[in-house]
UniProtKB/TrEMBL annotation:
Pfam family, one: ATP11
Keywords: Mitochondrion, Transit peptide
Protein name listed in UniProt: ATP synthase mitochondrial F1 complex assembly factor 1
Subcellular location: Mitochondrion
Amino acid sequence: MMQHFVSKASRRVLCVVRALNGNASCSSMATRHYFRVVPTLQRDFDKTPVPRNFFKWGSQEFCRSFSFVTGFAPLKEKPLDTILDVEMAKTKSPEELADIWDDFHLGRGHIGISMKAKLYHLMEQRASDCRYFVIPVWKGNGHTTMFVQVEMPHMLFTGLEDYRARGTQAAPYMTASYYKEFAESKDLVLVRGDIVFTSKLSDEEAKWLLEAAQSFYVNDVKYKLVERFNKQTREFELKDVLQALEMPIL
């Protein structure tokens, strides 16, 4: 039963981007549109085009879109000094600062976590080569698959089914920003996740999703699945991600 369930889920994932396979003009158009919608990210996405094999998932009408933030208010990076007292933070140890950051975000519809600067730089390096991934989030008796786009120092998460159904009208469920102000002095990068749709993700689910996404980029074994998704898409199976996450098997 579980094998059938995973197979069906894998087919849903695989059908999402097949339309864009081999269509370089569509890829370029969509990525340019993405950064008109989210100008504050200020990234030259066309310099690193989406891998050809990635676009084998989907139907032809899906080629009209590769941006999932159209119609959504542009992301505005919130300066760190508007979130916490930076001067006070300088007097704290890395452990104290991490605890303060985490505690501040509890129950606010935001997620606060932190990571070592070395791991952040590894993630940044790997994300420049492999920008996309999918992560199932367990809900009830099954899972909802999230589509992840990494453009450091930001990550965007949206529902894969919403992306498939709404194309350019799909909006992020959650955004994440990375603050590197203390990377050198404290070997610490602060991470803030903002839940856009609380009806789609609870605080607990959002935190789990953000940490899971990071783990696939900083763990050598898990990162092979990210590479496969971006570079060897025909060999990618969602069941491998489920196994890596040790999701419950019915």
